[in-house]
Amino acid sequence: MRIREKTSFTMNAETLEILRSVLQDLHERVSMVSYIDNIIREHLRAHRELLNQASAKQRRKTTIPFMMTTILLCVLLLLGIVWLILGIAYSYERWRSLSLSEDKPATRTQQRVEEAHELVARSKGLTTHVIPPFPVSSVAEESKYECAYFCGAKR
Question: How far apart are CA 96 and CA 106, in angstroms?
Fold first, then answer.
């Protein structure tokens, strides 16, 4: 048993009168709704190729941006997964290096000392420039040169 879904629509009154007169002239025992349904189905069947081409063009116009969005989201998801894998690998290496350093703390300290010695051996030594001491003089001492003016110039 087939259950039909029905829908209502509006139609130009003049077109409806033409269809009624056609039905009366044909002496068919068909309802107006069935007759209109048959006309529409025949029209769709006759122009199927043309309608399919027109709808395919329209679908392509809306499908291409949707496809680009889908591709970009897939690339973003892929990059996120790669980032996560790299983070896990980095964390694993850090954990492994820490666990190895806890097992051999003396060796690690010895390596640091050796590196420090290498650093000092390769670099220039720090030399201190010795500044000779100044002779101690007091304010009470007078200069050998008695000059009333600065630099010996008189006014």
Answer: 18
pTM of the model: 0.34
Total residue count of the chain as it appears in this document: 155
Q: CA neighbours within 13 Å on the CB side: how many for 106?
A: 0
Contacts of 57 (CB under 8 A, 6+ apart): none
Give SS3 for 144. coil
| pLDDT digits (tens), the chain, 155 positions | 555 677 788 889 998 899 888 888 888 788 888 888 888 899 989 988 888 888 877 776 666 677 788 889 999 999 999 999 999 999 999 988 888 776 665 566 666 666 665 554 455 556 666 666 666 665 555 555 565 665 555 55
Helix (H, G, I), strand (E, B) or coil at 149: coil
Q: HSE of 95 in the Cβ direction (CA atoms, 13 Å)?
A: 6
Nearest to 34 by CA among 26, 14, 51, 50: 26
Q: Which amino acid is at 130?
A: V
